Amino acid sequence: MKQGNIRRAFSYFESGAVLLVTSSDGKRDNVMTISWQMVLDFSPRIAIATGEWNESFRTILETGECCLCVPSFDMVETVVGVGTMHGSQGDKFGRFELVRSKAMKVRAPLIPDCLAALECRLEDYVEDHGILIFKGLLLWENAGKKDRRVIHANGDGTFFADGEFRDLRREMRDRLPEGLE
Amino acid sequence: MKQGNIRRAFSYFESGAVLLVTSSDGKRDNVMTISWQMVLDFSPRIAIATGEWNESFRTILETGECCLCVPSFDMVETVVGVGTMHGSQGDKFGRFELVRSKAMKVRAPLIPDCLAALECRLEDYVEDHGILIFKGLLLWENAGKKDRRVIHANGDGTFFADGEFRDLRREMRDRLPEGLE
User: Fold this and answer.
1) pLDDT one-digit tens code per residue, A24-69
2) Measured between CB atoms, which of B11, B40, B173 is closest to A130?
3) Which CATH number fits domain A2-175: 1.20.120.530, 2.30.110.10, 3.90.180.10, 2.40.10.270?
4) Interface probe, candidates B36, B79, B132, B133, chain A, greatest A C-beta count within 10 A
5) Reduced to 3 states, what is the DSSP secondary structure of residue A174?
6) For chain B, domain boundaries
7) B87: CB partners within 8 A, 6+ apart
8) Residue A42 Cα, gap to closest chain B Cα (Å)
């Protein structure tokens, strides 16, 4: 993975990609699957919805950090495996042979097999609604990844990959943020 | 459109579908395009990120209601047209020949050409982060719609339709909410 333009980071999340969210308490790394996520602004700020049922939730609250990693569709079995195993059941990185690497600004690891990873600082916890608000600090991109389709969860155990592509950049020209190239 | 099972409603949103969000102040209907949205729970509660730059935002705050409509990929040009026209520039329903119909529990109209529409009550406004929290009241489904692919925005003026499908319901059996059938 190579460092990418932080202004382009939101575009990895806006389409509704399922995420692998990593955290670390300094002794042990953890990872969870999250499909309840949305972009809040282009800086980027990203929100996820989670709660006490995820072991990672407590670690992220305490450390104020995570990495939001964007897996490709060829990783969907791993993503489901991570999503159905609780942190208390053992080491998910070992169980699913997930390679990790060191991030630069946070202790949470990167997953370099993903399409992208965003090192994040926790900005706020909206407790009433179980929403964590992250500010993206540093973007990593994996230009060498062959399968570039993200995973979309339907919530019922079925998934779609990105399919037909449509370019409407000309029609949206006046409404796009700068710095996307 | 026919009424559907509200327990299945979240599944229309979880994959990151671009939405047409309707509102009405009693005199005039309005519609905006939103791709910054996430599921908060299965009841369902849905969050969207928006703000003063959308005319619909003020109407939704004042009326406490909207419909979240899920367009299919064959509507992507209309969705982009709605998203790039401001409410102050005229009637978007007329301009884009968007048919609307009456909802049951809210004054905001349904868009019956969409795959689904969720009548919603505004539950909260998280002002610090520009997040509106909606509670879904009533689900409408359009079983007759041929193009069943939702629209995913990449944020740069390009879009993907739902593509390759993967069924991992067996693997996720223990983690799925009841009532999805």
Assistant:
1) 999 999 999 999 999 999 999 999 999 988 889 999 999 999 999 9
2) B40
3) 2.30.110.10
4) B36
5) helix
6) 2-175
7) B30, B32, B54, B55, B56
8) 9
